[in-house]
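G., the chain you wanted modeled:
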Amino acid sequence: MSVFPPVGRLRWADVPAPLRARLETALGSPVTDTVTPAGGFGHQLATALTLADGRRFFVKAAPTGDPLTAANLHEGAVLGSLPPGAPAPDLVGVHHAAGWTAVVIAHLDGPHPDLSPASSDPGQIWALLDKVTSSPAPPPYTAAVASAPSGAAGLHGWAVLLANPPGDLDPDVRHRLHELAELEAAWPGFAHGDRIVHGDLRADNMVRGHDRGVTFVDWAHATRARIES
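Predicted structure as tokens:
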């Protein structure tokens, strides 16, 4: 029987007892509460654990053979390889038990950044991106993402629309299809390079913490690319 719920994510109670016990032992305190954030697209466990001693951690877990476990392990490897000062949470540990794998990540407390024109958050985000891409990726990161597939093959949406534009396509988009397809044609050249790339950066994959400002989370799609200044 499948362990996955008909809708939504797995819950802490769905995790086999041996893995739950292993995590509580490794973290040094029993779990007293869990909170699963809204949003996201995976069926895996992705939840914030609160321990009896008040500390909090974020855990992603799924059966070891599940495709999302490979993504979780990729994220764990990436987090463990990023240079000091990178805008990412710390990797706490990786644990296996009862045919499941869990990746434990430092918990970040705060809302998603405000991307409205009046906010200062976008300026900080651009500054963080400039910082993280200002020099070549360190060797540990390069090794961690070596098996990550390039996104170049997926960069073709505007060309597809240009070849066969649907009748209900927004008029402003239709007017600029040639320009957009031309810009898109240059994208594959940027999909290979030596700089750190998060790979899935959007507002809900960022947290504006109370102590360290904006941090990028969910590095499961991290890769390398070329950056043009």
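Residues 41 and 163 are 30 Å apart (CA to CA).

Shout if anything looks off.
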